[in-house]
Amino acid sequence: MIIWLKRNYQSSIDSKIKIPSFIGSLFNWRPDAVTIPDKQKYQKHIDFIEVTDLYKEMINHTIKAIIKFVILDLIGEYLRNNKSEIPERSYGLRVLDYLRTGHPFTDIYTFFHCILLIFNLIISISLVWNIDCIIYGMLLKPLLSNSVKEKSKLEESKSFKTKLKEWLIISIFYTKPIMGLPYFSTGPRDLWSKQWHQVLNQAFKELGYLPVRNYFKHNKTLGRVLDYVAFFLLHGILFILLETVENNIVRREKDTKDNFGIK
Description:
Blueprint (H helix, E strand, L loop, with lengths): L1 H12 L8 H5 L15 H7 L2 H31 L9 H11 L6 H38 L14 H14 L14 H8 L5 H15 L4 H41 L3
Keywords: Membrane, Transmembrane, Transmembrane helix
Pfam families: MBOAT_2
Subcellular location: Membrane
């Protein structure tokens, strides 16, 4: 909503900027992730998709989802049976000890455990995207079968079914997944901009990165530093809020169990 309000303000200044309705913007919350080869032939790419193409894509996502389920189950089983001991001394202090005394701040077993946890996170988020695409495919199937078409090509004249059909096609066939291949990133920028968790990337960019960069446009060096600071600051604030909410929920559940004597 904040991004939509921001773009409304921009359109009030520049009449060339056109924005969709608020409801329409909800179906386009990752515009940078759309990968239509030639945007001049947008409608052609949409109309090109047929039921057979959808079946192939759904089979592809289903196979990937099954494989990821199996991998997650294996990782989960290993982690349950091989719990890593958490050192009492914090990681930062252990790194300082290593620099001062040469004593290793971790061991191979703990490092492997951390790698598995990261890999587990990557696969879990990637699996969500596969499941989403399978659900989208189920919704798209009847729309493709009925060959929903409109005589007019104007956006304003398209029916809800046509808009929904186009959005589903774009999401399934022309949208980058939520999680890319972070382990093949070419650098920090590629990792955070393209490969890592992309759900809130656009929001952080619109509300943190771009405003700060535009504000310091006369001092590009300072702007390049502070825009990234703003981006990750929003990221940190969000996770602090989420963690606070989660802790409150857990605390309330614990208090409820204690009050009722539930073990």
